[in-house]
Design a protein that fits this description.
Layout: H1 2-22, H2 51-61, H3 68-90, E1 101-106, E2 111-116, H4 123-129, H5 137-148, E3 176-184, E4 193-198, E5 205-209, E6 220-227, H6 237-247, E7 255-268, E8 283-295, H7 312-322, E9 331-337, E10 343-349, E11 369-373, E12 376-379, E13 394-398, H8 415-438, H9 440-460, H10 465-469, E14 473-476, E15 484-485, H11 486-491, E16 499-504, H12 508-512, E17 527-530, H13 533-542, E18 544-545, E19 548-552, H14 565-577, H15 579-589, E20 594-599, E21 608-611, H16 619-631, E22 646-650, H17 655-665, H18 671-688, H19 695-707
Parallel strand pairs: 1-7, 11-13, 16-17, 16-19, 20-22
Antiparallel strand pairs: 1-2, 2-6, 3-4, 3-6, 4-5, 7-8, 9-10, 10-13, 11-12, 14-15, 14-17, 18-19, 21-22
Helix pairs in contact: 3-6, 9-13, 15-18
Length: 709
């Protein structure tokens, strides 16, 4: 590819220099120094290319998958038909031929034959189009069409030519050691058929032919590929059918494959005894094999139509056929973009999570977005078309403006790609908004099946985080049977409430028993439950929503609760009163488990709660990070049973703490007081969702407590 680029670039640069030199005004000669003996005039040279080496690059470097040769050659044939159709419309040329592409597998001759009834080529066009590498006859024809600027044609009648690079024809050498082309041009006044033949070297031959080798009527082209030994699987019609259906299913001209069909018929049984008089002859079933051309591309590219001309049934049938799905899509979006970037797209939200995403929600082998160029399938593995959090959305995108490499296998990053990607994301958000407004079963299904993907979007998509945040849902204390969005939570906020509150835990049951809920119990505030690590990551990335800060109740200082002036004064007084008790708790439990102990005036029923500092990790996140480290083979010092040193917050009005304070104030707290401190910590850890690493010690403490009763 580098050799091609240099050769083409050198030729263009030389032409530009020559043109520029011819257009320099005469007045510039006054300021131009004449060449001297020490300053010679520069000489211009054109880059040269070794043809055999360039062919080798095209055959062995441009394409990574041999299957694409059929896509390229069928596209060339479709282009030939499209040119002939366009000329018939614009120049009123008679066209009695049925425009079609036919493919036949010749197993005996080990040939693959592709023929079309398109515009064909004369001898001169063969030399120009097939004999000059990177010379695209299709691109030249497209430029001629644009120059005509015939606005009288409908969009359906406009030319839909695919080729542009002028190297797709040579992809045939991926599977063939010799290519033979028979063609008769529509523009050839002599109406002669010529044969072009090459073995991928530096030369080719052209011969005028007649008789059986000639193109019979009208114009057209027949391409014969003499297949290599390692490519003989392309002689199977099933293989050819699958490739046509994959790459060229929506080409506008019929693509027919020579197929053997077996049917069963009833015929008289010659071996049976003659029937009695008046009885019918005995019959037997025999297989009958016939061969005929069978059309492979019967589906219509409905994304090319106006949305008003497509019915709901057609959308559903297209979804199930194209994506091999059995569910009914929840919603869809059919749109186009015109301007500097032009493309058409049809997007679907499935009715259920695709099976292949069940075990891996970001399975790279699963192609959800199919890219087409002028109805020809290119690839479904372009992750750049839409972010991975939209992996569940299925759709097709058809554009000729996207920056593909010559082999049409790599989507290069560019401003065009960013425009397309942004529009796809916006349309997806619009679809989600429609589902949300509609509500009901479809919205519930959407959340159950794809809610995780939205939360990943909040975490990963910086540009659309707030917009995606409108659709993420969580469980809450408001209703045990329904999920709620943050926006709905804000609508239900109490008067005077300034923050959105949440707690995390392994499931709803653990969240409901968290002592942290008591911090807002007196106020009657609703609390959202983060039952998975992804939920908490989502909250951490959002930070705020509609100017309401999102606050974790498991922190040691809860905004909107602990920053009340009356609360602060009450806490300071209790802190002074329990100063010795707090020191005793730190000494008894150990500073590896708790960083400090303090009084909380927000607790009502629980004796104590474990909290984290402002930037500390919740127990859920600690477990997640530990599991992740184990999976990656990293050693992780968890610093005790709870992962990080927590803050022990005590309830000064609870009987256990008043009794413990009395023992400490006497000046000689014994083993009973130390056991109380350990139990206080372990119970708070258990209710808060932390891991109790030393289960044996905890069991011993409980057993000893029971024995004293």
């Amino acid at each position: 590819t580098l050799g091609l680029a240099m050769a083409a670039g050198g030729a263009k640069k030389a032409e530009k220099k020559k043109a520029a030199a011819e257009t320099i005004p005469e007045t510039t000669t006054e300021t131009t120094k004449a060449p001297t003996e020490t300053s010679k005039a520069p000489e211009s040279f054109e880059f040269q290319a070794e043809v055999s080496r360039v062919m080798d690059i095209i055959i062995n470097s441009l394409y990574s998958d041999k299957d694409v040769f059929l896509r390229e050659l069928v596209s060339n044939a479709a282009d030939a038909c499209d040119k002939k159709r366009f000329l018939a419309l614009t120049e009123s040329r008679e066209n009695s031929d049925e425009l079609q592409v036919r493919i036949k597998c010749d197993k005996e001759g080990k040939r693959l034959i592709i023929e079309d009834t398109g515009i064909g080529m004369s001898k001169e066009e063969m030399i120009n189009n097939l004999g000059r590498i990177a010379q695209s006859g299709t691109k030249a024809f497209s430029e001629m069409v644009k120059a005509k600027n015939d606005k009288s044609l409908s969009p359906e009648d406009q030319s839909n030519l695919i080729g542009q690079f002028g190297v797709g024809f040579y992809s045939g050498f991926l599977v063939a050691d010799r290519m033979t082309v028979y063609s008769k041009g529509l523009n050839d006044p002599d109406g002669k058929t010529h044969r072009w033949e090459s073995e991928a070297g530096s030369s080719y031959t052209i011969t005028e032919v007649d008789g059986d080798e000639a193109i019979a009527d009208g114009s057209g082209t027949r391409l014969e590929l003499s297949l290599r030994e390692d490519a003989e699987d392309y002689l199977e019609d099933l293989k050819i059918k699958s490739l046509v259906q994959r790459y060229s299913e929506f080409v506008s001209f019929p693509i027919k494959v020579w197929t053997s069909k077996t049917s069963y018929e009833q015929v008289p049984d010659d071996e049976a005894e003659p029937p009695a008089e008046g009885e019918p002859a005995k019959m037997k079933t025999v297989p009958m094999t016939s061969q005929e051309y069978e059309t492979q591309n019967k589906m219509q590219p409905i994304w090319m139509r106006a949305p008003s001309k497509v019915t709901a049934e057609q959308y559903e049938e297209f979804y199930r056929t194209t994506f091999k799905a059995y569910d009914k899509p929840l919603t869809l979006s059919h749109f186009s973009l015109e301007g500097q970037v032009e493309f058409r797209a049809l997007l679907y939200v499935p009715g259920q999570l695709p099976f292949e995403l069940g075990s891996n929600m970001f399975d790279e082998a699963t192609g959800n977005m199919r890219l087409y160029v002028k109805r020809v399938f290119i690839n479904d593995q372009f992750t750049e078309l839409c972010p991975r959090w939209l992996k569940f959305v299925k759709g097709v995108v058809d554009s000729e403006d996207l920056p593909l490499n010559v082999g049409r296998e790599i989507l290069q990053k560019s401003s065009v790609l960013r425009v397309v990607s942004r529009r796809i994301v916006k349309k997806c958000l619009d679809m989600f908004g429609d589902l949300k407004d509609k509500g009901g079963d479809d919205w519930n299904t959407f959340q159950q099946q794809f809610g995780k993907y939205l939360k990943v979007g909040v975490v990963e998509d910086n540009d659309n985080r707030k917009d995606i945040g409108e659709f993420v849902c969580f469980q809450s204390t408001a209703d045990a049977t329904k999920l709620t969005t943050i926006g709905q939570y804000i609508e239900r906020m109490k008067e005077g409430q300034t923050c959105v509150y949440f707690v995390s835990g392994e499931g709803r049951a653990q969240c409901e028993m968290s002592p942290s809920l008591e911090k807002v119990k007196k106020n009657g505030y609703e609390v959202m439950f983060c039952t998975e690590p992804l939920d908490e990551l989502c909250m951490m990335e959002l930070k705020d929503f509609e100017d309401k800060e999102i606050v974790d109740l498991s922190k040691d200082n809860v905004k909107g609760i602990d920053d009340n002036e009356d609360k602060k004064k009450e806490k300071e007084a209790a802190q002074t009163d329990f100063e010795d008790t707090l020191k005793f708790l730190v000494q008894s439990i150990g500073n590896k488990k708790i960083s400090k102990a303090e009084v909380s005036t927000s607790l009502s029923d629980s004796p104590a709660v474990l909290a984290q500092a402002e930037y500390g990790m919740s127990p859920q996140m600690q477990k997640y990070m530990k599991a992740r480290a184990v999976a990656m083979g990293d050693e992780m010092d968890q610093g005790g049973g709870v992962g990080q040193a927590s803050v022990l917050q005590i309830n000064p009005s609870h009987p256990i703490l008043t009794r413990l304070k009395a023992q400490v104030d006497l000046g000689s707290p014994g083993d009973d007081a130390k056991r109380t401190a350990q139990l206080l910590y372990n119970v708070a850890a258990l209710r808060g969702g932390y891991e109790i690493e030393d289960g044996k010690q905890f069991a011993t403490l409980v057993t000893e407590l029971m024995a004293t009763q």
